[in-house]
Amino acid sequence: MGGVNPSLDVVIGVVVGFLLGVLFMWVRQRSRQAEEERTRALAAARVTVRPEVSRVLNLLRSGGVVVGPHDEVVQSTAQARTLGVVRGSRVVVPEVLALIRDVRQDGHPRNMELDLKREGSTSLHLMGRVAPLDDRSLLVLVEDRTAARRVDETRRDFVANVSHELKTPIGAVSLLAETLEDAADSPEDVRRFARRLQIEGRRLTDLVRQIIDLSRLQSDDPLLAQKDVSIDEVIRMAVDRNRVDADDRDVVLTAGGRGGLHVIGDEAQLATAVSNLVENAIMYSERGARVAVAARSLVLGEEEFVDISVSDNGIGIPEEEVQRIFERFYRVDYARSRDNGGTGLGLSIVKHIAAAHGGYVHVWSKPGQGSTFTVRIPQHSTREAAPEPGAGGTTTYDPVADAARGDHPQEVAG
After folding, report:
1. With contact defined as beta carbons under 8 Å apart, do 253 and 246 qualify?
2. Is the pLDDT reported for residue 215 higher than 70?
């Protein structure tokens, strides 16, 4: 057999290479043309948001979403993403997506109200509206109404509790008035029922007054007034208000601690808070007991605080009750509270006043040993406090723990 002509091999290789190059260039050109066609098709189908609509969306505090003809998210606000309605380019809440499709089908705007469950947190109560924006897109507006619903529920509960609490003294007054009329011929019964009538009248008056106080506290901000308040004067007012009750019950009421302390706030509110604590301490103490009111200054980290503590050696509070005593109308001892005319609102008012002044309430208590309630307020004042006898200035220890005989108080935040 003869050998293969080398020149023929070279020619064949050149031809094959040329054909492959031509084929490669043709495929690449077709691919480029197809890509350009797809790009033009997408551009033709893409929904654009008008600049004025985009500006309005950015100004909204609620969640806003513009949805395209294929349920794709064209634009969304940060609030919509935070609420979990939108993730990437998709609407991920089934109820919202179903409403979008209903509106697209008939063109009629629709409102929605739904509870959105979120992992690791409470559910969100959302209200919104879906409406056509133009021929191809829809606008979804979503607002978080969780806080508003919580306030409404709290208000309804409060009104229900107030109605229940008012029924007792009003019913008692009505019944006692009838009984008093029937006992007109018995001076002893008249005096006995009249005394009881006075007690129920005072309870009704106190309840109405404290309801009004609580309503005012929820609308006033004592820190806006920027008034300098003398803690000495606050304690004096609180002690004077309760001096007669303390004497009637043979309770020794004393005031002490560090003098010359000042805070920024509302003097009347702070006096009411301390007075409520003193009143409770007297009410839940036996005859011959002691109630002490004291003020201290302390440093926690880089902040200075003023503590106003009210300590007693009364019946004390069980540990499981401590967190609940600040609930409205809650009473640890209903029998004692009823006998003494307690309304169950005093400690709730104390908590609100402390919170309004940027502070909170400490509680230490043990059954049979007594209790220490402390209102802790930031010391927003430029005045210098008079040093406590034997002290060298601002203390850096916890005075409540000291008053509680070494036990740590439990904090109840406002």
Report:
1. yes
2. no
Residue-averaged pLDDT of the chain: 76
* Burial of 214 (C-beta count, 10 Å sphere; 0-12/13-18/19+): middle
Q: How many residues does the chain have?
A: 414
CA distance 266 to 270: 6
* pLDDT classification of 116: cutoffs 50, 70, 90: confident
C-alpha separations of 96 from 64, 123, 124, 342 in Å:
12, 16, 14, 50
pLDDT at 368: 81
- Closest C-alpha to 319, from 255, 263, 363: 363
**Six token digits for residue 242:** 């309760």
Q: Which of 294, 286, 309 is nearest to 365 (CA)?
A: 309
Strands 360-366 and 410-412: antiparallel
Dist CA 187 CA 65 (whole Å)? 78
The number of CA neighbours under 13 Å toward the Cβ of 124 is 17
- Write the CB contacts of 97 (distance below 8 Å, at least 6 apart in sequence): 71, 91
- The pairs formed by 225-229 with CB atoms below 8 angstroms and a separation of 24 or more are 225/265, 225/266, 226/264, 227/264, 227/265, 227/266, 227/267, 228/262, 228/263, 228/264, 228/381, 228/383, 229/262, 229/263, 229/264, 229/265, 229/266, 229/267, 229/270
pLDDT band at 157 (very low <50, low <70, confident <90, very high): low
Please return the burial class of 353, using the count of CB atoms within 10 Å of its CB with bins 0-12, 13-18 and 19+. Answer: buried
In 3D, which of 111, 115, 38 has the Cα closest to residue 83? 115
- Which residues is 264 bridged to in the sheet? 228
The answer, yes or no, to whether residue 120 has pLDDT greater than 80, is no
Which residue's structure tokens are 């509106």?
103
Q: Of 266, 284, 283, which Cα lies nearest the Cα of 358?
A: 266
C-beta separation of 142 from 63 below 8 A:
yes
Q: Are 375 and 361 in contact (CB under 8 A)?
A: yes
Statement: residue 32 has pLDDT above 50? yes
